[in-house]
Amino acid sequence: MAPPPPAGSSALDVLQFLSTALSQRGPYALPYAEETKWLIRQHLVSLIEAFPSLHPQTSSFTHNDGRTVNLLQADGTIPIVFGNVFYNIPLSIWLVERYPLSPPSVFLNPTAQMVVKANHPHVDRSGCVRVPYLQSWVYPSSNLVDLVRSLSQIFSNDPPLFSRQNPIPNPPANPIPSPPPNASRIFSSLSPYASRLQGRPTEDANEVFRRNAINKIIEAVHADIAGLHKAREAEIEGLFATQAELRRREQELACGVREMSEEKEGLEQQLQLVLMNMDLLEEWVRQNEGKWPHEVDVDNVFQPADMFSRQLLECTAADLAVEDTIYSLDKAMQEGSIPSDMYLKNVRALSREQFFHRALETKVRAALVQAQVTSMAARASHYAS
After folding, report:
1. Is residue 217 part of a domain?
2. Residue 188: closest CA among 214, 210, 165, 172
3. Which end of the chain, N or C, is more open, meaning fewer C-beta atoms within 10 Å of its C-beta?
4. What is the pLDDT of residues 280-307, one digit of tens each?
């Protein structure tokens, strides 16, 4: 936790303390919204500049429900004028969690020699202050400087604290120009809070109006900047999402290009293989052209390796021939070239013949597999021996 600046510190020290306190993280973090911290810092700096007797600090605040939180407060005194004499009222201004949307909490800090005036219209026995400015607090027009000025005016008309040694009952509403006998001793024993500041000049009304107008303009500008900041953040988030989608598509396109390049290389290799084989075949044709004394019988170029292969070849050829014949009969039936009774009779006969061909083909395949197994077993036993 950042140490509070000493009383009478410069505005730079106060600003540095507030910046450090509002940027704290972890267990010492202050419970204020991030978008309002700049306004809290500005309000406190303006307050300390207008009332140097107040100084900011952080301390634990206990709510009525028992919750304890670490909050910012402006602690010190505010000036009042009673009986043409200046006095200082000790108090603390607590900035609650929802400040500046919610008004601060103000408490008097009477010393052991002080007593809170009974039945004060704006202060209860516990020292809690309730004035119209707090009850009509409106963000963003309300601020701490105007609050303290309102407190100073109200307490000047009706002081809330008196000395225990010299209590004074209800002072007159309109004090006379010269101070009454006991009024000069209202805070006589309350040093450092009681200090007479006779001759202190009052602030110029035009200067106050100018400063308030400047503060209002600054608050409006900051509100506009905050709105623009949120809009730009939303726009940046949208751009980031678009960028992520573009990167994903870029990866997909790169993967697709890589796969197409690999496929192209494979096709080029196959093309080279085909061209090489074609060159070999063409070379073989050139070398063997004219070497055959008679025309080659294509049907006898390839011969089955054994009896089972020959039977399998004949059965398969017969099966396919019957299949082609049945297909031709179907076309003739659709075109009306043959009557239906002739179609059915021929199809029945062909189907019977095809059945026998396929049955024989199945037996030949089984015998061929058995012969291959026997041959492999014989070779295995030969190698084993």
Report:
1. no
2. 165
3. C
4. 999 988 887 777 666 667 677 677 888 8
Q: Secondary structure of the chain: what % helix, strand, coil (to 5)?
A: 55, 10, 30
Question: What value, to the nearest 5°, has the Cα angle with vertex 355 and ends 354 and 361?
Answer: 90
**Residue 291 domain flag:** no
User: Which of 4, 106, 14, 20 lies closest to 52 in space, CA to CA?
Assistant: 14
Instruction: Please give the full DSSP string across 29-57, using - where no structure is assigned.
Output: -----GGGHHHHHHHHHHHHHH-TTEEEE
Residue-range definition of the domain harbouring residue 188: 11-202
Tokens standing for residue 75: 């602690």
Q: What is the pTM of this model?
A: 0.45
User: CA 102, 103, 105: angle at the middle one, nearest 5?
Assistant: 125
pLDDT digits (tens, 9 = 90+) for 134-159: 998 988 888 999 999 999 999 998 89
Strand partners, 108: 91
Provide the CA 50 distance to its chain's centre, in angstroms.
41
Give residues with Cβ within 8 angstroms of 305, minimum separation 6.
none
For residue 104, the domain's CATH number is: 3.10.110.10
Neighbours of 275 (CB within 10 A): 10
Element (DSSP H or E) covering residue 114: strand 114-116
Spatial contact of 67 and 134, defined as CB atoms under 8 Å apart: no
Contacts of 155 (CB under 8 A, 6+ apart): 78, 80, 89
Kindly state the tokens that stand for 337: 């070239």
Residues of the chain with pLDDT under 50: 167-201
Q: Sheet of 68-82: strands edge to edge?
A: 54-62, 68-82, 85-95, 105-108
- 3-state class (DSSP) for residue 86: strand
Side chain identity, residue 118: A
Q: Alpha carbon 258 to chain centroid distance?
A: 34
